Amino acid sequence: MNQSTAKTGSLPLKVRTAVGLFAACGALTLAWTLMSQSVTSPVRFLLLLVLAVGTANKKFRLYKDSSISFLTSVVLLSLMVAGPVDAILIAICGVAVQTYFPSRKLVMHRLLFNAGMIAVTVKATCWTYTFCTALTPEGPLNQLIAALAAASVYYLGNSLSVSLMVALSTGKGMWRMWLDHFAPSAPSFLVAGLLSLLASQVTMKLPEATMLVAIIPVVICCYNYTLQFVETRR
Residue 134 — pLDDT band, cuts 50, 70, 90? Predict the structure, then answer.
C-alpha cells in the first residue's frame, strides 16, 4: 500500500472500501474457524506463536530479489502440525509484527488489511492442504503434493491481494504490478512449503520440551537481527 499514506481517512474511497472488505472477511473467517474448531495443543500453539512473532521480519535470500520469509514457513508448518485455528492466529500475529516493524508505527489501515488478508489466505490454504491429503493415497508423495499446493495457494492469495491494494492506491494496473513485483517470488514460496514439510516431519516426532529448547535460540537470534535492522533504519 502507499507508503506515504498514514491515516485511513485520507485514503481514496475505493481503497478504504477494499480495506474494510478484507477486514470484514478476515474477521468472519476467524470467527467461523474458532466456532468450528479449537487449538489442539496450547503448549505447541504457544511455541509456534513465539517462533512466528520472534522471526516475523527474518528473510533468507534465495537469488536476486527473491527471498524466503521465515513467517511463511512457520505458518505453513502450523497448518501441517496443528490445524487451521493455530495457523490463522499465528499468521495474524506474525503480520501484525511485520506491520509494526521496522517503522515502529502502527498504521491502522495496513494492520486491518494485512490481518484480514492473511486470515482469508490461510483458511484457503488449509482447505487446499486438507483436500489434497484426502484426495491422494497416504505417503511421502501425498504430503509433497499437499505441501506444494498449499504453498501455491498461500502465495497467490498473498501476492494477488497485495497487488490489488497497491494498484488501487497508485492507480497502476494490478496485473502489471503482480508480474513486475510478485511473480518472481513464486519459487520462494514453494521452497518455504518444502521446508515446512520437512520441519513438520521432524516436529511431530519431538516432545514439546525439546521443541522449546530448539526454538528459543532461533527466536533470540532473529529478534537481535530485527533490532539491529531497526537501528540501521533510523
Answer: confident
The residues, any chain, with a CB within 8 Å of residue 61's CB and separated by 6 or more, are 67
Helices marked H in 40-107: 42-55, 70-81, 84-100
Phi and psi, residue 99, nearest 5°: -70, -35
Quote the cell numbers at residue 190.
514453494
Q: Look at 18-27, 31-40, 47-56, 153-162 and tell me which has the smallest mean pLDDT.
A: 47-56
* Omega before 137 within 30 of 0, i.e. cis: no
Amino acid identity at 58: K
Which tens digit of pLDDT belongs to each residue from 71-124?
Answer: 898 899 899 988 999 999 999 999 999 888 766 688 899 999 999 999 999 999
CATH code: domain 12-233 is 1.10.1760
In order of 64, 84, 179, the CA distances from 91 in angstroms are 26, 10, 25
For residue 79, what are the contacts with CB-CB under 8 A and spacing of at least 6? 86, 87, 122, 125, 126, 129, 150, 196
Asked if 232 and 67 count as a contact pair (C-beta separation under 8 A), the reply is no
Q: What pLDDT, on the 0 to 100 scale, is given for residue 55? A: 78
The residue ranges of every structural domain in the chain are 12-233
**Whole-angstrom distance, CA of residue 50 vs CA of residue 66:** 25
CA–CA dist 227, 101 (Å, integer) = 9
**3-class SS at 61?**
strand
CB 195 within 8 A of CB 185: no
φ/ψ of 46, rounded to 5, equals -65, -40
pTM exceeds 0.90 for this model: no
